[in-house]
Design a protein that fits this description.
Strand content: 25-35%
Order of helices and strands: EEHHHEHEHHEEEEE
Low-confidence stretches: 64-71
Mean pLDDT: 80
Shape: elongated
Strand order of the largest sheet: 2-1-3
Number of helices: 6
Structural class: alpha+beta
Helix content: 25-40%
Largest sheet: 3 strands, antiparallel
Radius of gyration: 18 Å
Length: about 140
């Protein structure tokens, strides 16, 4: 059977087959199937519940990311690289919550620091998390 990824807005909820998701979340299979249609995606507003069909290659990639994200522990004082963050977190979460933005024109990351300032870094630059979306080199 085909697996589907369930999202509420940008937040990942679960991944499974439609019958299993219907049982877990007390929804009908037909209602969940509708949430996977392009017409439902077009009608959605920001924080809507939607399903996305996962192909076999994508499924393996998602499983690998889930393993990585379970091991990733972002604590105060944790040192990491912008590239490592991008392999675990979605772009919007990185930008708005973590203060790490990718500038495709310069191919650099813009890292927010204390006092509202920022610095540019490439993907392999080690940065230290200070909390509240602020970093230092």
């Amino acid at each position: 059977m085909t697996d589907y990824a369930m999202y509420k807005g940008d937040k990942f909820i679960d991944i499974d087959t439609i019958p299993n998701l219907a049982e877990k979340y007390h929804k009908t299979e037909s209602a969940l199937k509708y949430l996977s249609y392009p017409s439902a995606h077009k009608k959605s507003h920001g924080n809507s519940l939607l399903l996305y069909e996962i192909e076999d290659d994508e499924q393996n990639d998602i499983n690998q990311r889930n393993v990585t994200s379970k091991k990733f522990d972002l604590k105060l004082g944790a040192a990491t690289t912008p590239y490592e963050l991008s392999t675990v977190f979605q772009y919007s979460f990185m930008r708005y919550s973590l203060g790490v933005n990718y500038d495709s024109f310069s191919k650099k990351y813009i890292i927010r620091t204390q006092g509202g300032e920022s610095f540019n870094a490439d993907g392999s630059t080690k940065i230290v998390y200070l909390g509240f979306g602020e970093w230092k080199k």
